[in-house]
Amino acid sequence: MSRTREFVVLFGTLLIFWVLLNNSVAGDVLLVGAVAALVITLMFNNGLGLFSEFRFTPKAILMVPVFLAYFLKELVKSNLKLATVVLSPELPVKPGIVKVHTKLKSRMGRLLLTNSITLTPGTLTVDIVGQDLYIHWVTVESVDIDAATASIVAGFEHYLEVMYG
Predict the structure, then answer these.
(1) Based on the structure, what is the number of domains in the chain?
(2) 27, 28, 35: which is closest to 11 by C-alpha?
(3) Based on the domain organization, do 39 and 63 belong to the same domain?
(4) Is 13 within 8 Å of 24 (Cβ atoms)?
(5) Which GO molecular function annotations are given, in alphabetical order (predicted)?
(6) In terms of domains, do 122 and 92 share one?
(7) Statement to judge: residues 69 and 11 lie in one domain
(8) How far is CA 22 from the centre of its chain?
(9) pLDDT tens across 51-78, in order?
(10) How far apart are CA 9 and CA 15, in angstroms?
(11) Contact (CB, 8 A) for 82 and 127
(12) Is 104 contained in some domain?
């Protein structure tokens, strides 16, 4: 998709959402919406869209619902694990920040990885330095980079690598 077309599609989509959210096409509402859509479109003119680095291969397309199912499974699992920790009388919390490594090369792949980690209760992405992620972990199981990577990152990364590289 050309840069101009991407710009117009993003601007138009944002403006449509603005109108839908405001339930009005009054001149002042459209003007504010157009300015907001323009500012946001200019801020994201580097093409970092959900499909900007997506590999449109049959395997990658089939991996999308598999990734979503895996994410939902991990979401439920981590909610139950964190609930057990919080409800335990001993409160076995061992918080810390661990360094993990990702093999993902694409910016969008890393963004989805960090968001998946952050949305999973008990973990929060604090910083990204190159291919290293710093994760706050409520119950640190290991400070070893390889062990922490296997525990936190590897599952998500397996699917995202096929989809984004």
Answers:
(1) 2
(2) 35
(3) no
(4) no
(5) monoatomic cation transmembrane transporter activity
(6) yes
(7) no
(8) 27
(9) 677 888 999 999 999 999 999 999 999 9
(10) 10
(11) no
(12) yes
Q: Which residue has the tokens 């459209």?
A: 30
In angstroms, the Cα distances linking 97 to 62, 77, 90, 123 are 34, 21, 22, 9
Q: Which residue has the tokens 């049959």?
A: 58
Per-residue pLDDT tens digits for 22-42? 998 999 999 999 999 999 888
CA-closest candidate to residue 111, choices 65, 38, 47: 47
Neighbouring residues of 106: CB distance < 8 A, sequence distance ≥ 6 = 53, 164, 165
Structure tokens, 55: 């590999």
Sign of dihedral through CA atoms 94, 95, 99, 104?
positive
In DSSP terms, which residues pair with 125 in a beta bridge?
Answer: 135
Between the CA of residue 6 and those of 36, 51, 121, 128, what are the distances in Å?
A: 17, 11, 34, 27
State how far the Cα of 45 lies from the Cα of 15, in Å rounded to an integer: 16
How many CA atoms are closer than 13 Å to the CA of 84, on its beta-carbon side? Answer: 7
| Domain carrying residue 62 | 58-164
